[in-house]
Design a protein that fits this description.
The complex is a heterotrimer of chains A (485), B (294) and C (315). Chain A is built from 19 helices and eleven strands. Chain A is α/β, with parallel strands linked by helices and 485 residues long. Chain A folds into two domains: 194 residues, Periplasmic binding protein-like II (D-Maltodextrin-Binding Protein, domain 2, 3-Layer(aba) Sandwich); 229 residues, Periplasmic binding protein-like II (D-Maltodextrin-Binding Protein, domain 2, 3-Layer(aba) Sandwich), CATH 3.40.190.10. Chain A is globular, with a radius of gyration of 25 Å. Chain B folds into two domains: 69 residues, no CATH class; 216 residues, Orthogonal Bundle (MetI-like fold). Helix content of chain B is 73%, strand content 0%. Chain B contains 14 helices and no strands. Chain B is globular. Chain C has twelve helices and two strands, in the order αββααααααααααα. The chains are: A alpha/beta (485), B mainly alpha (294), C mainly alpha (315). At the A-C interface, helix 3, helix 12, helix 18 and helix 19 of A face helix 11 of C.
């Protein structure tokens, strides 16, 4: 018995040590205080007003015991906004407003509607919660859900932005966030027109040129696109990587939204997507990858056997660049040059069909207790032409500011990653074409996800089209039980 | 399974015995390899880089880099705080483990030692509900916790373990074999209060049972994914962070890092494996004990 | 075990309080509520953001609806039977090899003539996968088995294998994971049962000239029947709750053609919106487990061998 006791004591010591080691002392007390379990190391946060250097240290990791008015609490689904926030907003912030105030990002994945579920849970108890949400982000797929209703506050009347502040933003980015009464509920720092990015090495090999205009001529409509696919296939190259790559080209050009009057309709455009993708899959024009998975990324290597990717502006910095280089781009940019993997060997063209993809909007929460800071963030990150221009230059993001973009184009903007191509001009052209009226519904996230998922079985030959369609209906009805299919 | 049939075996020759031994050892070694294979691969992968395609059989040199990336501030905001995930998992597991073994023992003690009218009914009730899966009441549980304002709190993951019918059952079995009532009687004669008797005399006797059930409940809570996924959002336990890392592949491909993810998995299972290895003798005996005693 | 209790009965009740109070609050009340939901036409419009000042604005509760939710759940659209079928198939894929391998190992370990060495080591290792996070194992196998994953590269030089994209491949992977996680546990339990058999039975069988195969089928199997039944039923209950492994392998669509979608997944997917029909599915899960639980009790009390419960049903 004594032996067992020793063993037990020893093993728990090991456990504790392991946890403490992993916790590096931030779980200094392992008492029964359930709420301050771990991670309450907010002590580092004292160095405000030090300008742009001390960034991440200000993050309030644990909200326990903090005064809600002293924390800017932000709900989001990935770190894209946080990166912009820390790099471009923080050095430019109004330090007086931020005196003694921390920020906190609450991250929940978009997949499977988890973000919306968790956000909804938090919103529904906001009125009584001590810790108020100040900002939450929304995506085009479910923007409408939060535009309607009371969760987001009026950008102009409540937060205090003026029409003049907003004049440089693309109209569609404002239209999306305007409710039935004409009230603007959110703003964005990016516009997301789509392009087709292609591998210049393969272009030269197959089409004899990598010039965007000439390649565009080869791809300017879906018939030509398919012919090009056949040509590429002869050399063992797939024109697109997987099933979902072309999806947005179709889904953004629908004639009616997924849901009208609580009824789901499958737009003819989506059926076209299904037919085309099935044809492509059977003919070997794609590599059967799933969006974002490892194979899909592997195709972005310069010898990845994939010709191109449909991407919006964020696709370059967010996906293509890190995936195509062999050596991670260093902070000083010294290895950002041709020869490092696919750097400088990609080009952009408009592709067969105008579309947009994604887009993130900043909403002020109706119960926010830091509206002045919310205003400061919105002003700096979505209205300030200088900051916006630096985002575009630094992140290759297409920012939502016509003045900034025009200035860059006029200044002879060149994108080294795209071999010196000025893709901003292409994007500007595409951005003007975006019209989202009568295309969005509050249920798009779930519908898109379930539709693409169900159709995968059809493409792979596991199901007939009808079976796949039936699966979509069943799946979507579980998430949105009040809808008719 | 003709080979296995020779339970006692007849007087077959030495050669046939040898052949049977060889077969047995071969199969066992194969099973050992299969069982250890996931661990081995995890450890290998934890030393590999960001994008891992294909399989590698030997260590790469990315371990320290993965360590750095796992614990830097970026990873924190991305997956939730890595340190905190260990903290929450440990807190939840340790407390549910302590609560469930203590209160199950108390319950078993009540039914084992005392005579009262509802004794039999209580025992039967607990046995009946032993098999009711938490999933059956999950919907109601979730809505109830929502109404209590306990979503995103660790309380709904800890307190319910006070009522753990399976642990109760084990404790009851153990008491029947190892807790003579004379001890309780003797304590009473010495003037010891009932509650004190339980705490200072009975509990020490139950230690082996505590060890076995303790590790089972600890591991169960440590590995639980279903309930935390339902209840928690900002406080992330290890399986939830793991899920976040998996989703990162879709939601934030730029930063998805397979090396970091595998390293995290190794760290997540390490404590449990260490404790298991230390206690394995008791655990295996405990399973056997549960199987055929009585 | 005759007790000459004086007036200690009240302590019996007092010591029962924590258990029953906790059980009442955290299990009975939710269960009753779940039963109640199952007869309501209760939906939540998740396409509507919660109104901060009126959180219930997106609730559509049309009140009592009889057994409509059950009818829906049992219809092809409600998926319950399909998912129950999936669950059963995946469970079988894991359970059959599990019981066969465990029986063989248990017989070997207990064979006094075979005298296997290093038994402690083998037992420790084969039980080991059981303590690992199912999510971690699943994630590892996921990366191994996806298209162009390690398995594809290894077996086929990157061709079209992609076993997780095939209905039976995906089910096989999940079954295999379940197998390696549980065969050690079953082995140890069966071993204990076999060791409990009186060796004189084997000796007399040998004298009567019974072949080893006969001994196995005529003595070992009948005598460990109760524990076999027990293993079978607890494994079924565990299988009914299967969630982590298929979820990680199959993702949100739960595998090719939804072939990895288990009953518990319907609860996770629909818990925010389809309250009524999820309630009905929970009730049916409850009924099935109650029947299985009742059978376990019966098996346990019927036999002198008295197999015992050792830990909560597997997940």
């Amino acid at each position: 018995m004594a032996q067992l006791k020793k063993v037990l004591a020893g093993s728990f010591a090991v456990m504790m040590a392991a946890t403490l080691m992993a916790g590096c002392g931030d779980s200094s007390s392992s008492t029964a205080d359930t709420n301050s379990a771990a991670g309450d190391n907010t002590s580092k946060a004292a160095d405000e007003s030090k300008g742009g250097e001390a960034v991440a240290a200000d993050n309030a990791e644990s909200l326990d015991g903090l005064d809600s008015a002293k924390v800017v609490n932000i709900y989001c689904w990935n770190t894209e906004f946080k990166d912009r926030f820390e790099k471009y907003y923080w050095p430019n912030r109004d330090t007086a407003l931020w005196d003694g105030v921390k920020y906190h990002f609450e991250v929940n994945t978009n997949e499977g509607n988890v973000y919306q579920t968790k956000l909804d849970e938090a919103l529904s108890t906001q009125a009584n919660d001590a810790m108020k949400i100040d900002i939450f982000l929304v995506e085009a797929d479910y923007a409408l859900k939060y535009v309607n209703g009371t969760a987001a506050s009026d950008v102009k009347a409540t937060i205090g932005l003026t029409d003049d502040d907003l004049k440089d933003q693309y109209k569609y980015t404002k239209d999306v966030m305007t409710d039935a009464n004409g009230v603007l509920k959110g703003v964005s720092w990016q516009a997301t027109p789509g392009l087709f990015l292609y591998n210049a090495v393969y272009a030269r090999d197959v089409f004899g040129t990598d010039e965007p205009d000439k390649i565009q001529a080869e791809l300017s409509d879906w018939t030509k696109f398919e012919a090009a696919a056949a040509k590429l296939k002869e050399k063992g190259i797939a024109i697109v990587s997987g099933f979902d790559d072309t999806y947005r080209c179709y889904s953004n050009n629908v004639s009616a939204p997924w849901v009208t009057d609580n009824k789901i309709t499958i737009d003819p455009k989506l059926t076209e997507w299904v037919e085309q993708t099935k044809k492509f899959t059977d003919a070997g024009y794609n590599n059967k990858t799933g969006l974002w998975d490892d194979n899909w990324k592997a195709g972005q290597k310069i010898d990845g056997k994939t010709f191109g990717y449909f991407f919006s502006t964020w696709g370059i910095p967010f996906t293509l660049l890190p995936n195509t280089v062999n050596e991670e781009i260093k902070d000083d940019g010294s290895n950002a040059k041709v020869g490092n993997g696919g750097y400088g060997e990609w080009r952009a063209c408009p592709g067969p069909q105008a579309y947009f993809w994604g887009g993130t909007w900043i909403c002020g929460c109706a119960t926010a207790d830091n509206n002045d800071i919310v205003k400061d963030i919105m002003l700096k990150l979505t209205c300030n032409a200088d900051i916006m221009a630096s985002i575009t230059e630094g992140e290759q993001d297409y920012t939502n500011n016509k003045t900034a973009i025009k200035k860059l184009i006029d200044g002879g903007y060149k994108n080294d990653f795209l071999g010196g191509q000025n893709h901003l001009a292409l994007l500007t052209e595409a951005a003007e074409k975006i019209d989202l009226s009568n295309k969005l519904s509050a249920y798009d996230q779930g519908c898109n996800e379930k539709f693409q998922g169900a159709m995968k079985d059809y493409f792979l030959g596991n199901s007939t089209y009808d079976e796949a369609l039936a699966k979509f209906k069943t799946d979507v009805k579980q998430v949105y039980s009040n809808l008719e299919v | 399974m003709p080979r296995s049939a020779d339970v006692v075996g007849e007087s077959t020759g030495q050669t046939s015995l040898l052949i049977r031994r060889i077969i047995a050892y071969t199969v066992l070694v194969a099973l050992v390899i299969i069982s250890l294979f996931p661990f081995y691969l995890l450890i290998i992968n934890a030393t590999r880089g960001k994008v891992q395609s294909g399989i590698e059989w030997w260590f790469s040199d990315n371990l320290s880099n993965n360590f750095k990336n796992l614990f830097d501030s970026d990873a924190r905001s991305r997956y939730g705080n890595i340190f905190a995930s260990f903290g929450y998992s440990f807190l939840i597991s340790a407390l549910s483990c302590a609560l469930s073994v203590y209160f199950s023992a108390l319950t078993a003690y009540s039914i084992h030692v005392y005579d009262f009218k509802l004794k039999k009914a209580a025992h039967t009730f607990i046995l009946l509900v032993m098999m009711v899966p938490t999933q059956a009441s999950a919907l109601g549980f979730y809505r109830l916790m929502k109404n209590f304002g306990l979503l995103d709190s660790v309380i709904p993951l800890i307190i319910p373990s006070i009522a753990a019918p399976a642990v109760y059952f084990f404790m009851k079995q153990y008491m029947e074999s190892s807790l003579p009532l004379e001890i309780v009687e003797a304590a009473r004669i010495d003037g010891c209060g009932e509650f004190r008797t339980f705490n200072s005399i009975v509990l020490p006797i139950l230690k082996p049972a505590f060890a076995v059930q303790g590790i089972f409940t600890f591991v169960g809570a440590w590995n639980n994914y279903f309930m935390p996924r339902m209840i928690l959002s900002s406080k992330k336990t290890i399986p939830l962070v793991l899920q976040a890392m998996k989703s990162e592949i879709a939601g934030n491909p730029q930063v998805a890092d397979a090396g970091v993810m595998n390293l995290y998995m190794v760290l997540a299972i390490l404590p449990v494996v260490v404790v298991y290895l230390i206690l394995s003798k008791y655990i295996i005996r405990g399973i056997a004990l549960g199987a055929v005693k009585g | 075990m005759k007790k000459k209790s004086i007036s200690y009965a009240k302590w019996g009740y007092i010591f029962l309080i924590p258990f029953f109070v906790a059980y009442l609050i955290f299990a009975v009340v939710p269960l009753v509520q779940t039963f109640y939901f199952s007869v309501l036409d209760y939906k939540v419009d998740t396409g509507m953001a919660p109104d901060i000042f009126n959180p219930d604005a997106n609730v559509i509760n049309k009140g009592f609806c009889g057994l409509d939710n059950f009818k829906f759940a049992l219809s092809s659209e409600g998926e319950f039977l399909r998912c129950l079928g999936n669950t059963a198939i995946i469970w079988l894929i894991g359970f059959i090899p599990q019981i066969v391998v465990s029986l063989i190992l248990a017989v070997w370990f207990t064979d006094i003539r075979l005298k296997l060495k290093a038994q402690g080591f083998f037992k420790t290792v084969i039980y080991l996968p059981n303590v690992i996070m199912a999510s971690a194992i699943s994630l590892l196998f996921y990366t191994l088995c996806i298209r162009n994953g390690a398995l594809d590269t290894l077996l086929n030089k990157g061709s079209d294998l992609a076993i997780t994209e095939k209905v039976w491949g995906a089910r096989g992977v999940v079954g295999f994971i379940n197998f390696i996680m549980w065969y050690g546990n079953t082995t140890i339990m069966l071993m204990a049962a076999i060791m409990g058999i009186d060796t004189s039975l084997y000796e007399s069988a040998q004298i009567d000239g019974a072949s080893p195969t006969q001994t196995f089928w005529k003595i070992t199997i009948p005598l460990i029947k109760p524990i076999l039944a027990y293993v079978l039923i607890t494994s079924m209950i565990g299988g009914l709750q299967m969630f982590d492994v298929p979820q990680f392998i199959g993702g949100n669509q739960a595998g090719p053609k939804g072939s990895l979608k288990t009953v518990v997944m319907i609860i996770q997917n629909g818990k925010d919106s389809a309250i009524g029909s999820v309630g009905a599915i929970s009730v049916m899960i409850f009924i099935i487990s109650a029947i299985l639980g009742f059978l376990t009790l019966k098996v346990m009390s019927d036999n002198s061998g008295k197999p015992k419960k050792k830990k909560p049903a597997r997940k």
